[in-house]
Amino acid sequence: MSVVTRFAPSPTGVLHIGGARTALFNWLFARRNNGQFILRIEDTDTNRSTDEAVKAIVSGLEWLNIDWDGNVVSQSSRCERHIEVANTLLSADHAYRCYCSPEELRLMREEARLAGRPIIYDGRWRDRPSSDAPSNVSPTIRLKAPRTGKTVIRDEVQGEVCIDNSELDDMVLLRSNGTPTYMLAAVVDDHDMNISHIIRGDDHLNNAARQIQIYSALGWPVPIYAHIPLIHGVDGARLSKRHGADSVESFRHSGYLPEAVNNYLLRLGWAHGDDEIISIQQAINWFDLGSVGRSPARFDISRLMSMNAHYMRIADDERLYEEVLPLLTKNIDHTPPDSVKTLMPQLKERSKTLVELIENMSFLLSKRPLDIDEDAQKFLSSDSLSMLERLHSKLDSIPTWSPTSVESALREFAVTEELKLGSIAQPLRAAVTGRKISPGIFEVLAALGKTETLERLSDVATTATKNGN
RNA sequence: GACCCCAUCGUCUAGUGGCCUAGGACAUCAGCCUUUCACGCUGAAAACACGGGUUCGAGUCCCGUUGGGGUCGCCA
Q1: pLDDT for residue A223
Q2: pLDDT higher than threshold 70 for residue A242
Q3: Pair A68, A8: CB distance under 8 Å
Q4: Torsion angle, CA of A196/A199/A202/A203, rounded to 10 degrees?
Q5: Where does the pLDDT of residue A241 fall: very low under 50, low under 70, confident under 90, or very high at 90 and above?
Q6: In the predicted model, what is the mean pLDDT of residues A380-389?
Q7: What is the DSSP letter of A292?
Q8: A31-50 average pLDDT score
């Protein structure tokens, strides 16, 4: 059997991480099995669907490098076919017209709730003759679902789940305005598109039972289901798509790398022994539904963060530069100096996100004189300042400026001053970066260049004089 | 409320009846390395929700309890 999976989001909001993981699993499973992966937008609810949401979903998926086969399918474009199938069901006596008003249904539910019965439609129009139909009401079309027996869902991750048919009601297939509901549309599309495996959040588990009833009414083969547990927030509560902070877009803007997000999402609910860092290629080779866990996972930002730090470290310098450039040019009015590139290996190792990377390179971008932050200021005592003045002339005498020449100069200087290297490095770092932490001091000086280094050193001295130190 | 699902360190998880005095990772703490920070390395603390069975033997199987989650729309 050829594998065809699909990601079928409703375009009512941003792509959140739960959806992204569902997409990832579907994509991985399809790629693993040399199958197809389809992106289908479930927009049968025209009131809530927006083009912006479609764009957000598409761009989120693209950013994650999750690609789909063929064009994006809009479910609403297949409306005719859905109606056709509903009519087939109607003429086969597997569906019927229901003339209940919304108010009547509300009352029905209310009564059921009070009586402690399942809150479902009681099927009152199921066997009524069409002569009873009120002439001024346009009916909905409901499925004539089996009333007895059980519907069993054979699920790749949940196992066998049995639902008593008495718990399920005659669901609406076509609304009174003639449009198809999700329940019908999803079944028809999954069938017509030859979807072999339906991998989705387990909030759809109950829907699976209902959809199986539609399949059997139609005599269609039921696809293989895999309902994966939802991702919860840190507090254990369900992640809401209303929360923008959980969106793929927000992680992108917070400076996370797509491969880190993918790796993190993959490990949420799926494991391959003790492996933690898993490349996308390994994931394709290894992914299986049997290793998907059944219990919901909580979203843990520090794990994502540490994975991101890992992918930052192994990322190509040039690529990181490209990623960071647009953000850099937004904040400064000059082109970034070459030092940004030359120092990238040291900078990226100290940055957990792209945002941190930018922060960590800020001292390279600032114009003189530098702002010295509070922590750095502590290293600039009057003793240190005079030491720095002597260091200025020492550094000035270096003929060829490089990490190694700077290092040997500093080490020599330490010997003549009878100081430990650290006692020189820290004030020096404070003076040339304005911070107490930075990449290695030799590399920093080398990247800054001789002129800039000496000028920054002089700045500190003059500022101190001005302040009367 | 009814129905369904779930339950191992704080978090993500390994574990498919003996290999478990429960392993890994993140986070935490201590130390080493060291020009700072980070990386790296070493170590520490940290869990089978509870109660009953089944079995020679249970984290692993069964039942119950508790706790969490999901679903009950002319939304998807």
Answers
A1: 97
A2: no
A3: no
A4: -80
A5: very low
A6: 91
A7: B
A8: 94
Nearest-angstrom CA–CA distance, A115 and A366:
71
Whether CB of A161 is under 7 Å from strand B: the answer is yes
Mean pLDDT lowest among A76-85, A130-139, A273-282: A130-139
Closest nucleotide to A179's CA, by C1' atom?
B74
Name the 3-class secondary structure at A270: strand
Tell me the catalytic residues of A.
241
Kindly tell me if the per-residue pLDDT of A463 is higher than 80: no
* Strand B lies under 7 A from the Cβ of residue A294: yes
Kindly report the backbone phi and psi dihedral angles of residue A328, in degrees, each rounded to the nearest multiple of 5, phi listed first.
Answer: -65, -50
Which contiguous run of DSSP H or E holds residue A258?
helix A258-267
CA distances from A130 to A97, A139, A147, A173, A363 (A): 8, 11, 21, 18, 80
Give the Cα separation of A283 and A453 in Å (integer).
Answer: 47
Q: How do strand A172-174 and strand A140-143 relate by DSSP bridges?
A: antiparallel
Q: Which of residues 18-57 of A touch strand B (CB under 7 A)?
A: 42-45, 48
Q: How many CB atoms lie within 10 A of CB A103?
A: 8
Q: Which residue in A436, A255, A425, A452 sits closest to A339, CA to CA? A: A452
